[in-house]
Amino acid sequence: MTAMTTDRPTAINPDPRISMGEGSLDAQSTTPSAGPLPATQIHQMLRQQWGDALLRRLHGIGRIAANLGTPAYLVGGCVRDFLQNHPMPDIDLAIEGDVRAVAEACSAELSGAQCTYHPHFGTAILRYPDGFQLDLARCRIEHYPAPAALPEVQPAAIQADLIRRDFTINAMAISLDPEKFGEFLDPYGGRTDLQRRLLRVLHPHSFLDDPTRILRGLRFAVRFQLQLEASTRDLLEEALTQNIFARLSGARLWRELKYLLELTDLPAALEELGAWQLWPLLRPTPLEVEPLLAKIRRGQQEIHWFHRHFPDEKLCDAAVLLTILWRDIPWAAEKRLHYWPVTDGRYILNDLHRLSEIPAALAKASHPSAVAQLWESLSLPGILALLAEYPETDTITKSGRYYLLKQRGLTSPLNGKDLQAMGLAPGPQLGKVLRHLHDARLDGAIKDKETARQWLIRQGILPSIQP
């Protein structure tokens, strides 16, 4: 199948449910349309939801852009979220012209605003003193030279910019032009699809052009409780039969999967993963999905517990969840980690091979130091992944949390310099003594430098006349 190009004529039929032309998706003729949204109503809704201060900023940007002959629009996800009265989203503006000129003019004319221009991407960020920021991008069309290839981009008008987007719910815009501020652009029925809870692509080659749209669509489906429109589901199945994800780089695929793993409602997303036949991206389809989802929920609880108790410590949340997902199939992890740039990925395989031994070894450990050594053999994500297999009241969970809260931070009262000052020579033996001191501290045999020195004498490591 040839690659789909989205550099189409800019004269677009405003009612795509009747016809969007060759290669378009037609909805059922009985699809109800959302009622009109006059500009005055949009203006009132913006004031109610986003407040007068932001509304004044949008008016200012619209005026500046119009004076430069480069109309500006609210576009994409912020329009979608605005229509659903969601909390104020990240706000994206599409500019029909020179983004840098608009951003710099805004920075010069709007009190306290500063711009950062990114010439490689043709985008800019406009920041205000209160921390609020707006993202500006040039309206563009995209041509995909081959399936799953990165697109070739060139400037375009807003209508062409909307058709190159992923789904109808993200192909809406609101004009900021002073003469038509609040004019609502919805050429593909995105508002109707939102109301009907439908997820619909804009053209038949959408998933072939960019397979990452499939995973973005799954996230949208979970986040907004959407169902795949029938023709879009057919296109998904067609793309999967062509093994379209095999054409993606590991970095592009992992970026989308990481976003998926970061969803608050990850269990629901993984259920959809099965419904969309996408389990093979992460692992072979589980024989029993619900037990795995239960462990994922527990894993999320352990991640939240860790961040609550160690807010300043870094944790790769995705590594915890991947370890849970791959717990029963280490070979699947090795295959994927070969080309996914996963943070902490080098530790995951080690954890997967050790996890099955830890519970029995913990039960046999007779000293706190032995318990701590077992937990130390795992990475931090590996520890939390193991805790996810047990209830919070289980002894293993209590042991793991105690290690993280208490044992992990314990240090020997004497360091290497102290020991050398006492006459011990540097070298491997010194390291062993430090390890023994650490274990003695964990076991409660020592608590300060003096008790540590006396312990070393009793062990025959220091002579008894040592001062």
**Biggest sheet, open or closed, and with what strands and sense?**
7 strands, mixed
Number of strands: 11
Query: What portion of residues belong to β-strands?
Result: 5-15%
Question: What is the terminal separation in angstroms?
Answer: 84 Å
Q: What is the helix tally?
A: 22
The name of the CATH architecture of the largest domain is: 2-Layer Sandwich
Radius of gyration: 29 Å
- The residue fraction in helices comes out at 40-55%
Can you tell me the CATH class of the largest domain?
A: Alpha Beta
According to CATH, the homologous superfamily of the largest domain is Beta Polymerase, domain 2
As an assembly, this protein is: single chain
Question: In the CATH scheme, what's the topology name of the largest domain?
Answer: Beta Polymerase, domain 2
Report on the structure:
The structure is a single chain. With 467 residues, the protein is of the alpha+beta class. The chain has four domains: 39-196, Beta Polymerase, domain 2; 198-280, Hydrophobic Seed Protein (Orthogonal Bundle); 283-407, cca-adding enzyme, domain 2; 416-458, no CATH class. 49% of the residues lie in helices and 9% in strands. It has 22 helices and eleven strands. It has helices at 39-67, 77-83, 99-109, 158-163, 190-196, 206-209, 212-224, 230-241, 250-261, 266-275, 279-282, 289-309, 317-325, 330-337, 345-354, 358-364, 368-376, 380-387, 395-407, 416-421, 428-442, 449-458; strands at residues 72-75, 91-95, 114-118, 123-127, 133-138, 140-143, 152-155, 173-175, 184-185, 198-199, 227-228. The strands form three sheets. Strands 3-4-5-2-1-8-9 form a seven-stranded mixed sheet. A hairpin with an 8-residue loop joins strand 8 (173-175) and strand 9. Helix 1 (39-67) crosses helix 3 (99-109), helix 12 runs antiparallel to helix 13 (317-325) and helix 14 runs antiparallel to helix 15. The termini are far apart. Residues 1-24 and 26-32 have low confidence and may be disordered.
